[in-house]
Amino acid sequence: MKLLFEKSISGRCASILPKCDVPMAAIDSSLKRGSAPHLPELSEIDLSRHYSELERRAFGVNNGFYPLGSCTMKYNPRINEEIASLPGFTDIHPLQPESTAKGCLEVLALAERYLCEITGMDAMTFQPAAGAHGELAGVMLIKKYHEARGDYKRCKIIVPDSAHGTNPATAVMCGMSVINISSGPDGRVDLEKLRSAVGGDTAGLMLTNPNTLGIFEKDILEITKIVHESGGLVYYDGANLNAVMGVVRPGDMGFDCVHLNLHKTFATPHGGGGPGSGAVACKSFLEPYLPSPIVSKGGKLNYSRPETIGKVKMFYGNFLVILKALTYIMSLGSEGVVESAKLAVLNANYFMSRLSGAYSIINKGLCMHEFVITMGKEAKESHVSALDIAKALIDKGSHPPTIYFPLIVAEAMMVEPTETESKEALDQASDMYIDVYKSAMSNPESVHNAPALAPVCRPDEVGAARSPILKYTGKW
Amino acid sequence: MGNYLPSTKAQQQEMLEAIGLSSLDGLYADIPQSIRLSRPLNIPGGKAELEVLRTMKSLANKNKTFGTIFRGAGAYRHYIPSIVKSVVSKEVFVTAYTPYQAEISQGLLQSIFEYQTMVCELTGMDVSNASVYDGATAAAEAVSMCRSNKRKKALVSATAHPDVIETIKAYCWAAGTDVELIPELGGATDLSALEALVDESVSCVYLQQPNYFGVIEGAENASKIAHEKGAKFIMGINPIAAAILKTPGECNADIAVGEGQPLGLPLSFGGPYLGFMASTNELMRKLPGRIVGEAKDRNGRRAFVLTLQAREQHIRREKAGSNVCSNQALCAMAASVYMSAMGPSGLCGAAGQSMAKAHYLAGGLEKIGHKRKHSGEFFHEFVTVAPYGEEKISQMLQMLEANGILGGLQLNGGVLWCCTEINTKEEMDFLVSLIKQFDEGGVA
Amino acid sequence: MNIKQNLLYSKTHEWVEFLNDTTVRAGLTDFAQDSLGGLVFVNLPAEGDEVVAGESFGDVESVKAVSDVISPVTGTVLAINEGLLDSPEKINEDPYGAWLIEVGQVSGKEGLLSPESYEAFCEGEGH
Q: Is C126 on the interface with A (CB under 8 A)?
């Protein structure tokens, strides 16, 4: 399909602004740009149809099954969107007097109270705009904590090899070096390896629990104890909180701080890759270091915080995202939050058991909210890779699972159905998954050219990376 | 209650039986009893949709929405064409994830490619990424891009937005590198001070255009000074002003960043906004976050893919230059639709009108004794010095508030005003008359 | 799999060609390029940098992976193959022609494998 630029017709435009009602201001020509920015010239109907066409070439949670592991693609309730479009929220300037923004401040205070209860933490910042950004703020808190005690030698962050890539990348942004520890045969943290990795230079450990294999780290109390005894802190990567919210809390497992992906666990939509929110909660001893301002108990913005790490973003965070998450928690309530977690785990286990006849599954016994398939054997022996299965699923109208993560599993496919899928949906999807597997194995050629029904098929990523074309360079 | 769980109790039971369990609690056998939460969560019970709507509306009603706004300082109320809201509320765009699977995501990938192209047009730079969180994080990430083993210190103009400065400082503190402020002189960056500060240890110079006080900076000169000593030059720009001011490309900037909120995003109490980032070809591989590229598919059709991914954290892990993965895709789409709906003439119109109105207001305020604090040319913001002290300035702003007007931002003995194309002549005349009356003791 | 007879090899899949007693060229083996897949970018050290046997001196990127390139020898970088920066695909097309670095002041050949030993090593790794 054509690009906006290819649809542009010189001289076409929509009438958006009235004539200026004051004299134009003169500007020194030495300050002016050479020519007006070359933007597309279109009418409203051109735009409307363009984006409707793009819409047909995309896939959202509303379109169908979206079991993208580690991403918690649960249904995004419409009421959240409606509330986030109320002018009483969208038209509020971030710097208007606090007495005129009481509703916004109350939203932040309520969201903090509920999320601290769910995580077992004491204080929170909403400034981080995404999970990785939350990690950055969280590791900054850990760094600041050590520095505030005059302990400058703690420069190492321990990360299990099953961790999200953001964990080691974050540690390095905070001037830390990374110690990767390999997982034990059961996919969990190897306690002996952890013991030998910690020491006087340990700043902390970053951990998801359940981990990226969908396995709960049952020795978590021992893990957090080992790190604490070495003088380090323990960071909870909240990417997988959906499995356990209301069942077990990071604070009760011994974690010192945690980020939440409000866009995963708390049903705010992903927007094709943002905006999200990576709210960070911590125990009270870390509160003085949180980014400024924080919302004080009285619902006021508190800027007077001499030990703060500073700011990680403008203003107070992605407010509308926080608002949607609060709306979701209010809808679910105390019992609904726990039930959602349980059904997420139930759905994952049910789906896993339906697939286990065909696919090789890494998880032994029960999984948490997600499980991992390996196509290692099939790839080697039959030339059917995780990528082939993923592409074949597209033709069946499903979004594929996450593939090639975690890195420690060969030809991994990571499946997270979430709690908002019904039993019928899972039955149907599992039939389809098995069907795809069987036809792929009986005729590998058939999947090598999948998908056949999508607008494009297996773009040349190697060519794209070797000679990058990152903008439209045609004439318009 | 509204918990979005479609499976009935009977279905749950069937599913449990299928996996050999008798109760939901059995799912958590791996979690030691000692750490499980043995009580209900201490949050209110679930609410029906109608109740939630009522509760949230009452919260929204506790906020005051101002019909007239003369405040900017990093968040700007511009007119948002209706088509923008209609496009970005399409359910598919709202609920999709990052477009990892190209075949099923061409719509999103193409929209990001179009966004990247428009950001390049606006900034005059070679390449753009798919966006980052906001203007402040874009600035901080840009500073990180410039760091090398030999050059670690960043010079940041004191005339940049305070939140941007704070964010750069926090990122640099974390990375263990230095930040030094280039002092302000008469509302602009002191370029002779910059000349004295920049040396072989400096990785980059960050300048905001127009600056926090609305003043148009001598960006080309700053760029020259930075480059003479081998430092990179980063320009933080206002994207509306960019329609008429010299582009970062024309100023030989190495990286252009900025807050994209003015491009079709509502104020929303500070977020979500949009950080845009563009650079020269030379720095392409150092850009953080997602980048979309054009490719050919198997059948020779044009396709779009996430590209240069080996820069990123999910592949490079501890060797990645940044941990950014999510961006602000939906906000970037809003910016694309905004720029396309406005077109070149519309965007220049919004810029020209914002500037014209700010100048008209500055003139009106000057006539009643609220003179501009700085002499440099300005875009759509300016600082006035009040003929009285802080306390009375605060009263004056409260008086405006009582009249439904969000006045400028109080700033060290002055006020930082902002106008956009939305502000009418009548509004500005009314504002000036209110202040005049107040100053003469007419209104309390 | 192609293994050249006139070269020495490392267990991390680099080849070494001695230009004289103390100067070598090093690159990635056919086995390495095949398992890495289509390469899209190469990061190489600068002239004058020291490289240490067994330590990484750069990396190569494919679309979905980054791999360290481990130096097979200890010495000083005399030259890098700049052509690869623009055309990394040459490593895939002609791995033994596409040298990455030229290293001088190389002290020894310890730890390097003969073509026969390398072939046996690869067979052990591959299957």
A: no
